[in-house]
Amino acid sequence: METRSDENRIIVVGAGVAGSHAALEAARNGSNVLLLEEHPQVGVPSHCSGVVSLKGLSLLGIEPQPGFTQRTIQGAVFHPPKGEPLELRTKQPVAVIINRAKFDQYVAKNAVATGVELHPKSRVSKFERYPDGKVGVSVQDGPTFKGSIVVDASGAGSRLPEQAGLQTPDWTQLLPGLQYELGETPKQGDLVELFFGSHRAPGFFAWSIPTGDHSARVGLASKKSNVKRLLDDLVKEFWPKSTVEGTKSGSVLVSGPIDKCWSENFLVVGDAASQVKQTTGGGIIIGGYSGILAGRAASNAAKTPQEGRWKILMQYDRDWRDKFSSDLRRMGIAHKLFASLSDETLNKLFEGVREYLPEIQEYADMDFQGEIISRMLRKKKFVALLPRVAVDSIRAVFT
Ligand SMILES: Cc1cc2nc3c(=O)[nH]c(=O)nc-3n(C[C@H](O)[C@H](O)[C@H](O)COP(=O)(O)OP(=O)(O)OC[C@H]3O[C@@H](n4cnc5c(N)ncnc54)[C@H](O)[C@@H]3O)c2cc1C
Asked: What domains are there in the chain, each with its CATH number?
């Protein structure tokens, strides 16, 4: 196959939120950037629910726009396994629901407008290193592209990090997820709804996200594999008169990020590095922001002689961890504990939460959940529940 070489080129694999942000930032920094996407159309198919915080969007330097914004969100309703739902409403909108396909297309379009060369229908099958210090990727049934730095942003399941000498995330820790686009739903307003319990979504949760006045994205992820039956049961219980207008499946990452996200002339970012909140499976903001950092590092490294590059690439790994890893660590612990809880303990936890709603409203942050997790763990009511949590965790390990 033909090899196309360009001395200082940055090659980004995957035009999702992480890849397009990396490509855009590298191009803004003056680099020659190639963005390879396996599908004919960026953003399609989409597996995502599209909930992003307004703060997170502004971290990416993006304002909500009619082109991709479906709805603004002002809080959430939590349905414990049993008993009264709990409503958390904020004074101001906190999040937006985005159409993920249109959002990804928006970012990729900006990248192209900044000079990025986008190649759709280009599935990368292999990462390569050359004796002259260059790196490259082979496109299945296509050319091999050679350049200075490869940024892998090809999402969950990527094998490129392994080929570049890095550990891959623990892909066995993917939770199967399924989502329906429902029509003819009763009005849900501006709150997302979250459903908990072993009969609904063991080990994780189910969600309903309003996308219009009478439409919603309803889905769940679970540690058990019977997600279709669970989702059908949920729909029957809460939206018996709705119509299923689309189905999406996807896997939610809960393994936590890999230990090292760079090797010689190679960076990995987004889901491919498992840069995802384990509590919710959300990765748009972390992946997008880390993409910006990766693009900047790749571009600066490409302008630097080989022997000095490693410092710049390693700094990317430090920078994204400085921003997110303390929160990710606490979210990881919270997820592991939460996944092991019995319905009875969960009911008690939700009861306990009621008392602290004003504090949660004040301190909760969708993207940086470490602060609120630490605060709640200091509350007497929660401390009193810890022996019960410990018993549930031990039981979960042995069953
Ligand atoms: C059911 C579900 C719901 C979710 N809901 C939310 C949510 O509400 N909010 C949130 O923040 N996060 C959510 N997430 C997580 C979020 O979707 C991901 O964290 C985010 O998409 C990661 O972005 P990425 O760019 O790293 O990967 P992706 O978005 O997966 O993009 C990877 C890109 O690489 C391309 N690609 C893959 N392999 C190759 C290859 N070999 N060669 C070339 N191109 C390739 C793909 O086609 C794709 O375009 C959800 C995930 C699931 C499964």
From this structure: 3-47+100-171+255-324 (3.50.50.60), 66-98+174-253 (3.30.9.10), 332-398 (no CATH)
